[in-house]
Every structure is written in structure tokens, then in C-alpha cells.
Amino acid sequence: MAPAFPTHPLRQAADLGPVLAAIGDARVVLLGEASHGTHEYYTWRTALSKRLISEKGFQFIGVEGDWPDCFEVNAAIKQDAVTYGSAAQLLQTFNRWPTWMWGNWEISALVEWLHRHNLSQPAARRVGFYGLDVYSLWESLQAVLHYVEQQGDGALTAARHAFHCFEPYSADPQQYARAVAFVSEDCQDEVAGLLRTMRRQAAGRAYASLPEREQAFAAEQNALVAVNAERYYKAMLRGGGSSWNVRDRHMMETLARLLELHGPGSKAIVWAHNTHVGDARYTDMRRDGEVNIGQLAREQLGREQVFSVGFGSYEGSVVAGKDWGAPREKMAVPRAVRASWEHQLHEQLRGDNAVLLSAELRNHSRLQQPVGHRAIGVVYRPQFEQFGNYVPSLIPERYDAFLFLDRTQALHPLPTTPQPNVPPDLYPWGE
């Protein structure tokens, strides 16, 4: 009989103690998920985030979401008064497909908790909520233009030039990418010039308060999103892994900027898919020349400063779409394929949930070679999952800890209608 994996029981938030102890003094904690539509991944990440904030002083959560939408949530949870009606109403801002990723009742509960927590903190210590992603080209340009019009400063001309350059393509970045794919005339110089101007303006200005400084930071971040989104959509049209790398490098750059904004010793929590937070060097992504935020954070901050937690389950249900931009559905998640990481844990644990720590797994005989590890994205076809949803992984190196949840259920989306012009995606797990 093969030796068992060392595990710790996982039934309630108190059982996360071994993970908290293993995290120690790490500055960045990356919390993954094996799908973008599973209730338990959201609730256990919430439970762990609450403890990191309350017990270890973590100062913000950065998520795999758009900067403008998340910054709206960030501003709301730092206010004393509730001016947005309810958390569910606030989350209607997430109207880009897949709307359910952040527009769901599970995030609504987290938002309410963050607001209550912040009420007990001084303004400088209130926990933030930020988006790390790169998709929001048009929305970010609009936000920059609105900010500089209010400020009336020297960035207004640069903002208008960038805005007008993209205007013929309306809100459709795909149309822009197709139009400039084979010509030299594009908007790269305009957005790069805007970012330079924004940074020059910020360097010469003193800010009276943290909220004022954060607003200026947000405007500059929107300019950075425009620069990298312009690169992303052109790279996406060319194909290959370059668009993936543009996206994850942008997420890492945003995380580093946020750590700098919050000062020396600041601590960050990141919520993103396992394919982003689990070190790419220990998967087949390395063969394709792809990097991710899990790898980049370890390389740039030092491995001892970064703690990555993977998530997975054996069977259950999930919210996803059959195609990119398709209506969301509640789908059955079949039992994990034989010999996969999830199947092995199910066989050992017989229906129980567990925490596994990589420090205790590293020398295990069954984990010296890559094992298939399930990845479900916003696009999912259960009947075909064995052909493209298992990522070969060296589990103890890809993550620092793993939360196994034997049977999981679909999360609970808010009734949000997605906007048109959904950017396509090239990855089989919908990432």
C-alpha cells in the first residue's frame, strides 16, 4: 500500500491554524481556486482572509478583477456611512462577463465584513480591495479622463489624445486589436505618453491625506492598465502565450505598486485562480514559456516572503459558461479522473476535507513526479474535462499549502446582466 499523505482536518475556521502558522511572517499570501464558480473556494478564502487581516495585520486584498470596478468597492468599504444601498447593489458594478466571478453573494458577505471591520479602524489602517487585472482598457481610459478633468492639470491634453485615439473602436478592444494588427498606426504612443505624464504630475504633487493619495494612485493605475491592456489585446490576436505573460506581469506590477503605496512592511492577500497563484515553473506552463504571479512574486520578493495556497475538490457543481460569453449555467463537476491529485486525496480521505502543508509533502514518494491537477475556468464542458482540464503539477513546489474540499457546490451569482463586447480568451480553462 502506498504511504498516506500527511493531512490536517478541515471543518471550521479554527482548523486553519496550521496554515496561519506556516505562513509565519510572509508578506504576500496568494489564495487560489480550482474554478471561478465554486462556493467553498470563496468561503474558505474569506475565512482565511479574515484571520490574516485580524490576526496578522494584512492591509489589502488584490483580486483577479478589473481595477475600476474593484476600486469602487474599495472606496465604499472605507467610508463610514453606507451610501451604496447594500453590498449586493454595490457589486452590480461587475458587469463584464463573467459577472459571477465577483458579483455573487459570497463576495457580498465579504464586502459587508470588510466594511464592519474598517469602521473600527482609523482611516490610514482601513483594509483595501483592489483589482489586479488588465482587461478594462476603455473603462480605465474613461476613469483617467474623468480624474484629470476634475483636477484640471497638465495631464488633460495627454488623456484626451489617448481617449480620442481609441474612440473609433468604441468600447470594443477586439476591434482595436484587429484594426492595428497589420499596420504601424496604433495607440501605443498615446497611452505610454499618458502614463508618463501622469507619473510626472504625481511626482511633483504633495497629498494632504491618504484618501487623496489613493485617488491619485488609482488614476495612475488606470493609465498603467491602458498601457498594458493595449499590449494585451494586440498580443492576444497574435496568439501564443505572450498575452498570458502580459496579463500576469501586469498583475505582479500592480501588486508591487500596491505594496509600495501601503508602505514598508505592508502585507497583501491575493485572490486568483490556481493557474495564476501556483508557481508556473512547476507545471507544464514552463515548457510553453509562460509565467504567472505566483512565480513572479517568489522571484521578486523572495520565496520566504510569499506563501501560496492551492484549492481543489473531487466532485460537485460549479457555475460556468459552455463558451466564452455564453449564459452562465450551474454544471455538474464529475468525479476527478483516476490517479489525479484530487482522486488520490479522495481515496485517502474518504469524503473528508483536509489541509496539506508542502513542507510535510516535499519528500513524499508519490509526489516526486508531476501529477494531474484539475483546473476549471469560466468556460467549462464537463464531458471533455479529461482532455484539457488537468495541469501536470509538482504539488509541493507549486504551492506552500493546499486545501482539499471533497465535495463542493456552485456559488450564488447576483442577477447581473453582462455588458457586450466580451474579450475572448484562448485558454482551455477559461483563464
UniProtKB/TrEMBL annotation:
This is Erythromycin esterase family protein. It comes from Hymenobacter armeniacus. The lineage of its organism: Bacteria, Pseudomonadati, Bacteroidota, Cytophagia, Cytophagales. InterPro entries: Emycin_Estase (IPR007815), Hydrolase/PRTase-associated (IPR052036), UCP036794_erythomycin (IPR014622). It comes from the Bacteria. Coiled coil: none annotated.
